[in-house]
Amino acid sequence: MADLRSAFLNVYSQLKSELLQDPSFEFTDDSRQWVERMLDYNVPGGKLNRGLSVIDSYRLLKDGKKLTQDEIFLTSALGWCIEWLQAYFLVLDDIMDSSHTRRGQPCWFRLPKVGMIAVNDGVILRNHITRILKNHFRGKPYYVDLLDLFNEVEFQTASGQMIDLITTLEGEKDLSKYSLQQHRRIVQYKTAYYSFYLPVACALVMAGENLDNHIDVKNILVDMGIYFQVQDDYLDCFGNPETIGKIGTDIEDFKCSWLVVKALEICNEEQKKVLYENYGKPDTANVAKVKALYNELNLKGVFEDYESKSYGRLVTSIEAHPSKPVQAVLKSFLGKIYKRQK
């Protein structure tokens, strides 16, 4: 995996250098330096799980056969398109949320001299995806399918972000809008499609598969994405900050978290009053009251029950799939997230 990761990072350098020499734009030294700094700051800094999953999924679809150099390059290029998509979402997301840090460093728009130029940088990041696809896939029979796939998933993610933003409108903090159904819709569209379905869909398209024949795979991956986000919501409150690498702020931020919607579902009127009075307030005393209520409702136990049932349901769905290579891809994804601590 370490070799794969370094090969993957080498492809980033190659794609970056092509983009910085793009013949459609006449770069000056200043503009080239700006784009290079912006890319290095925002694209390769995460865990790269989504991008690496394209290579991994494609290898499993090929029954674990050794990939050619060309296949490694093309699957890496598609993986980087997903990382570019992620960077585009995060740069704009941080502005919308007025965030301060991302991946342990200041958000891009918080840097001196960047500010709202970051909005345009987000647009450039999005456009780079189509440049990469054009440069390396235009001659492939599945080129249009890739363009369609990225457009579709971007639309779904942006729409999920919209539901999230209008549900948590500042000055309109209303817990009665929150429900498990609403939580599922936000997560399905905002996270599951691009984080879980897109890497596998890229590998399937490259392997010559028609995505219309794999609706069941999409449904399983979306379910997995929802399970992953529920874990995330749980770890935000109950995880060890040193392990997960950040201090959770879902309670202060009035997030439509799985914990709060589950609490609303099972609490009595008295407990509901505590939630309404304390959820979404930045004061540590308010946060402590919400956490105390979560413990009183035994949300740790409720989550453990949810986790084991979700895992069982996912394994059953995966094993019902007729293709062993597709089963291997799905099991590999599930194995990476089951009972994770960060």
List the helices and strands and how they pair.
Elements (H helix, E strand, L loop, with lengths): L1 H18 L9 H14 L6 H13 L7 H28 L4 E2 L2 E2 L10 H21 L5 H25 L12 H27 L8 H24 L2 H4 L13 H9 L2 H10 L5 H13 L2 H21 L4 H14 L5
Antiparallel strand pairs: 1-2
Structural class: mainly alpha
* CATH topology title of the largest domain: Farnesyl Diphosphate Synthase
- The CATH level-2 architecture of the largest domain is identified as Orthogonal Bundle
Order of helices and strands: HHHHEEHHHHHHHHHH
Range of helix content: over 70%
Radius of gyration: 21 Å
Give the beta-strand count. 2
Major sheet: arrangement of strands: 1-2
Distance between the termini: 19 Å
CATH homologous superfamily of the largest domain, by name? Farnesyl Diphosphate Synthase
Strand content: under 5%
- Specify the number of helices: 14
GO molecular function: (2E,6E)-farnesyl diphosphate synthase activity; dimethylallyltranstransferase activity; metal ion binding
Organism: Gossypium hirsutum (Upland cotton)
Family: Belongs to the FPP/GGPP synthase family.
Function: Catalyzes the sequential condensation of isopentenyl pyrophosphate with the allylic pyrophosphates, dimethylallyl pyrophosphate, and then with the resultant geranylpyrophosphate to the ultimate product farnesyl pyrophosphate.
